[in-house]
Design a protein that fits this description.
single chain; about 120 residues; mainly alpha; Ribonuclease iii, N-terminal Endonuclease Domain, Chain A; 6 helices; about 0% strand
């Protein structure tokens, strides 16, 4: 399977679950034991606005590799007009770019790089 031929929204669909799983494990390992508190804290990582901010941070710090930037750009430039009411289309596209990158790395079995990216985000 050629990963570069997979629709970036499909990559983002997978990346969303991998990303959220990392966030949930991180918060539980931090010792948060109440489900409502976990949910409130998770939003600070999984909202499109914050995902877009994390991606921009990585780009500003030259953290992403060239092939990773290509995946992000493919997702960011994908023609779509729908987006959640909670954010604007540009923010949504950046968040989709981050999720697509995580999905791509998951399908590429590059868990080490996913961990590096998640450690950057979760600091």
């Amino acid at each position: 399977m050629n990963l570069l031929e997979i629709n970036v929204l499909v990559l983002a669909y997978l990346g969303d679950t991998v990303y959220e799983n990392h966030v949930r494990k991180y918060l539980i390992e931090k010792g948060i034991g109440n489900v409502n508190d976990l949910q409130k804290e998770a939003i600070s990582y999984v909202s499109a606005k914050n995902q877009a901010k994390f991606l921009q941070d990585m780009m500003d710090h030259n953290f992403l590799l060239d092939d990773e930037i290509d995946i992000v750009k493919r997702a960011r430039n994908y023609k779509t007009t729908s987006h959640p009411k909670s954010c604007d289309i540009i923010t949504y596209k950046y968040a989709t770019g981050l999720e697509a990158l995580i999905g791509y790395l998951e399908l590429d079995h590059n868990r080490e790089r996913i961990d590096e990216i998640m450690n950057f985000i979760l600091k």
